[in-house]
Amino acid sequence: MAVNSAAEEITAPSGAELFAALGRSASAWPGIISGLEERFSPLELEWRASSLAFGRMCVVRFRGRVLVYLTPMAGQLLVGIVLDEQASAVAQSSALREAIKKMLTDTPPAAGEGRGIRFVVKTTADVSQVLLLAECIMAQGESRYG
């Protein structure tokens, strides 16, 4: 699929397109979406252009706040998450895998945006890490968002 230009309207892929792009990671997508919906509802899903081969990525928000970026690619699901300093501190004291905590520690914060990390989701255990990171993002803002 060609990469979309900024002028084109980005549409959600069909279920078949998404399933084909995700390959062996196809079960991760509904696990993440349903897990996020159980915790934060209603979700807003916005498809945007991506420079990766699939040409699209999905931004998942709750009440205007970005929880996760989901990018289907080459039979995998790439997840991107940005945590501000408060959410990063919550994440460091959470049950996240040490490898993810290290990614957060090793990633310098971008001015005004926080610490952005990406990783490939392959298993149910990976899905649980995405959900835990989303909880960390929302933890400090529960009084504003809950």
Write a concise synopsis of the structure shown.
The chain has 146 residues and is an alpha+beta fold. The protein has one domain (15-140). It contains 6 helices and 5 strands, in the order H-H-E-E-E-E-H-H-E-H-H.
Walkthrough of the structure:
The chain is built from six helices and five strands, in the order ααββββααβαα. By secondary structure, it is an alpha+beta fold. Helix 3 (85-92) crosses helix 5 (124-139). It is globular. The termini are far apart.
- Helix and strand pattern: HHEEEEHHEHH
Number of helices: 6
Q: What structural category arises from helix and sheet content?
A: alpha+beta
Give the overall shape: globular
Mean pLDDT: 89
Question: What is the oligomeric state here?
Answer: single chain
How much helical structure, as a percent, in the residues?
Answer: 25-40%
Extended strand count: 5
**Strand portion, in percent?**
25-35%
Q: What does the radius of gyration come to?
A: 15 Å
Strand adjacency order, main sheet: 1-2-3-4-5
Kindly give the count of domains: 1
Low-confidence stretches: 1-7
Distance between the termini: 39 Å
Largest sheet: 5 strands, antiparallel
Write the layout of secondary structure elements.
Layout: H1 15-22, H2 28-39, E1 43-49, E2 56-62, E3 65-73, E4 76-83, H3 85-92, H4 98-106, E5 115-121, H5 124-139, H6 142-145
Antiparallel strand pairs: 1-2, 2-3, 3-4, 4-5
What characteristics describe this protein?
globular, alpha+beta, 146 residues
